[in-house]
């Protein structure tokens, strides 16, 4: 017991961390390995131990002794007895059941006879059990490997999948030493480490899982280096067509694969090649077809055949936190393919983190954002929350009388935010600025008032690419964008982001938006992230939730009064 330490561990699995404590940063980095941040007000941050956070830690090689040692090292008081027991129990649960393959048969094995008995009697598992081979082993429907893993994680015993993978069609390719642009190229040490953690030297324990790296840290390079390591036909799934073409450009630039070996499968092109890059949108496109005679109309996914009409050895899920539910369902059917998820955050606003864990795989590698910042791999970022009032009593009354989800929109579209945006643009007049918003009418007004080009989901792909290129070249200094720019755009010289509204309290979106400006700057300068919120409204409440993930990564928001800034400007 040491009252001078920075954390308090409580019996309800919550952990309180003092923000102003000298050991705050090292305690925060320790907790991030096995706990989730729930609240982050000014002085005390609340973390929680969850089954999934502990299972991800276990999959990454942490054992109960290491976790308890860290908790004891930083705790003010003795750990509650139940915490020690629960950490040991949950960590021990990961891998107590294993999926293995013998010949054509898929087996579920555990050394714990009573656990096998419990699984046999569980209704979630009944549809998948074909027979009991012995006291420790069940034969499972080999076509339902993913469904079995989903069922087991919901029961509370995540399986370690050692059933192996289909090799896939050979695809000889190598990384270039010099890119097509004439730059020397070698994957960074953490990118190579991520590939090694995923592949595990070809062992059965490798080949499926998620790599978590900040936006701007080169997740695409991790995917390309994995391609070069496996040298197997690969399907790459991305959020949009712009991302598809950026992947293709990067693969051609950094490997010796000829262009005809890469196919684009989007709404505009349907080419399948040994490396095929597609979008989640095209896969989830549904059309209606007549059912059996007198039966209901059926909705089918005509492009799901992309998963099976080529002998893929690897499937890469870019921005895996955005994976749509229908793709989850089909991923359950293709567990014999190696699967790599790439993301800046494991957080899903739909609460489906357990499905990512069971169907794509556990977290295999991550690095704290601030660690990469300190090493110079991503830009140093300053985060500011600027609080502004409504412009007059009528606007306040309108907010007070509005109900439901519209209440947030009224606060988010506060017209007083425009003056703050003007102030920030003047302050950063020589910088490359992204102004990001959620609501179309709001960003249209901003674009008109600021005389800046606008980019939304309705902007044609060719026009998007043209605007991005003009921004990269410095011909455009300001770009007003909707949430379409949250992910998978490469704007290396953007160094200021001004957020006027967002998707309610989305933590993943906040991470993605900061990520737009984190690529290292050619002049070594800082990045600046401003979030303008309406004081004492749902806008401010949601903003606090949005900041959780970045706070966990070590970013602190400087909260400032917007009116004070405006009155002190020259």
From TrEMBL:
The protein's matches in InterPro entries, at most eight in alphabetical order, are given as: ATP-dep_DNA_Helicase (IPR050615), ERCC3_RAD25_C (IPR032438), Helicase/UvrB_N (IPR006935), Helicase_ATP-bd (IPR014001), Helicase_C-like (IPR001650), P-loop_NTPase (IPR027417), XPB/Ssl2_N (IPR032830)
Q: Which reaction does it catalyse?
A: Couples ATP hydrolysis with the unwinding of duplex DNA by translocating in the 3'-5' direction; ATP + H2O = ADP + phosphate + H(+)
Give the source's domain of life in one word: Bacteria
Q: Where is the Helicase ATP-binding domain?
A: 200-364
Could you say which EC number(s) this protein's record lists?
A: 5.6.2.4
Gene3D superfamilies attached to this UniProt entry? P-loop containing nucleotide triphosphate hydrolases
Keyword ATP-binding on entry: yes
A Gene Ontology molecular function term for this protein is: 3'-5' DNA helicase activity
Q: Pfam families in the record, alphabetically?
A: ERCC3_RAD25_C (PF16203), Helicase_C_3 (PF13625), ResIII (PF04851)
SUPFAM superfamilies given for it?
A: P-loop containing nucleoside triphosphate hydrolases
**Know the name of this protein?**
DNA 3'-5' helicase
The organism named in the record is Dictyobacter arantiisoli
């Amino acid at each position: 017991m040491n009252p001078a330490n920075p954390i308090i561990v409580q019996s309800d699995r919550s952990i309180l961390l003092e923000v102003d404590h000298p050991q705050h940063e090292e305690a925060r980095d320790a907790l991030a390995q096995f706990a989730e941040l729930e609240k982050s007000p000014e002085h005390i941050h609340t973390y929680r131990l969850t089954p999934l956070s502990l299972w991800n830690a276990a999959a990454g090689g942490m054992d109960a002794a290491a976790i308890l040692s860290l908790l004891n090292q930083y705790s003010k008081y003795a750990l509650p007895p139940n915490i020690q027991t629960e950490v040991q129990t949950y960590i021990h649960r990961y891998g107590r059941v294993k999926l293995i393959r013998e010949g054509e048969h898929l087996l579920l094995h555990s050394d714990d006879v009573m656990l096998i008995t419990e699984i046999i009697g569980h209704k979630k598992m009944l549809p998948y059990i074909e027979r009991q081979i012995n006291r420790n082993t069940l034969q499972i429907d080999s076509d339902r490997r993913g469904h079995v893993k989903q069922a087991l994680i919901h029961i509370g015993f995540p399986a370690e999948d050692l059933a192996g993978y289909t090799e896939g069609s050979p695809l000889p390719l190598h990384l270039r030493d010099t890119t097509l642009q004439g730059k020397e190229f070698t994957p960074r040490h953490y990118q190579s480490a991520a590939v090694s953690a995923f592949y595990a030297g070809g062992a059965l324990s490798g080949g499926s899982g998620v790599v978590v790296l900040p936006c701007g840290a080169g997740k695409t390079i991790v995917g390309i280096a994995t391609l070069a390591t496996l040298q197997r036909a690969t399907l790459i799934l991305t959020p949009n067509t712009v991302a598809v073409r950026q992947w293709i450009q990067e693969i051609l630039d950094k490997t010796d694969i000829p262009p005809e070996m890469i196919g684009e499968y989007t709404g505009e092109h349907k080419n399948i090649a040994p490396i095929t890059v597609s979008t989640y949108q095209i896969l989830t496109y549904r059309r209606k077809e007549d059912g059996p005679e007198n039966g209901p109309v059926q909705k089918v996914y005509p492009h799901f055949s992309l998963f099976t009409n080529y002998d893929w050895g690897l499937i890469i899920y870019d921005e895996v936190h955005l994976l749509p539910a229908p793709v989850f369902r089909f991923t359950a059917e293709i567990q014999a393919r190696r699967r790599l998820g790439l993301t800046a955050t494991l957080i899903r606003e739909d609460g489906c983190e357990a499905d990512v864990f069971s169907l794509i795989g556990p977290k295999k590698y991550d690095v704290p954002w601030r660690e990469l910042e300190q090493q110079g791999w991503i830009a140093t970022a300053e985060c500011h929350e600027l609080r502004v009032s409504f412009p007059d009593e009528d606007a306040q009354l309108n907010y007070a009388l509005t109900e439901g989800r519209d209440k947030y929109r009224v606060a988010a579209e506060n017209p007083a935010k425009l003056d703050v945006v003007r102030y920030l643009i003047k302050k950063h007049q020589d910088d490359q600025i992204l102004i990001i918003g959620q609501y179309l009418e709001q960003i249209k007004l901003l674009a008109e008032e600021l005389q800046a080009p606008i980019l939304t989901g309705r902007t044609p792909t060719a026009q998007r690419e043209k605007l991005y290129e003009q921004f990269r070249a410095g011909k455009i200094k300001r770009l007003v964008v909707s949430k379409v720019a949250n992910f998978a755009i490469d704007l290396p010289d953007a160094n200021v982001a001004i957020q006027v509204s967002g998707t309610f309290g989305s933590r993943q979106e906040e991470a993605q938006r900061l990520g737009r400006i984190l690529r290292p700057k050619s002049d070594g300068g800082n990045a600046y992230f401003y979030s303008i919120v309406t004081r004492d409204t749902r806008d401010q409440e949601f903003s606090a939730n949005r900041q959780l993930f970045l706070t966990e990564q070590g970013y602190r928001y400087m909260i400032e009064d917007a009116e004070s800034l405006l009155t002190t400007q020259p």
